[in-house]
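Notes taken during the Thursday session

The instructor put the following on the board and asked us to keep it in front of us for the whole hour. The protein is DNA-binding transcriptional MerR regulator. We were told not to look anything up and to reason only from what is written here. First, the residues (51 in total):
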Amino acid sequence: MTLRRIGELLELGLNLAGVRMVLVLEADNRRLEAELRSANATRDTARPRSG
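Then, after some discussion, the predicted structure tokens were revealed:
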């Protein structure tokens, strides 16, 4: 996937520095989304259910 993504970004006109920046930001975004899912799952299991 990474080589394909690099090709896509190069076709969009980014230079190699721009490609690197986008890949780093996308990786950071995936990490943060995983942290958020984990935090939400922890919160949801710790919260008593009303009903």
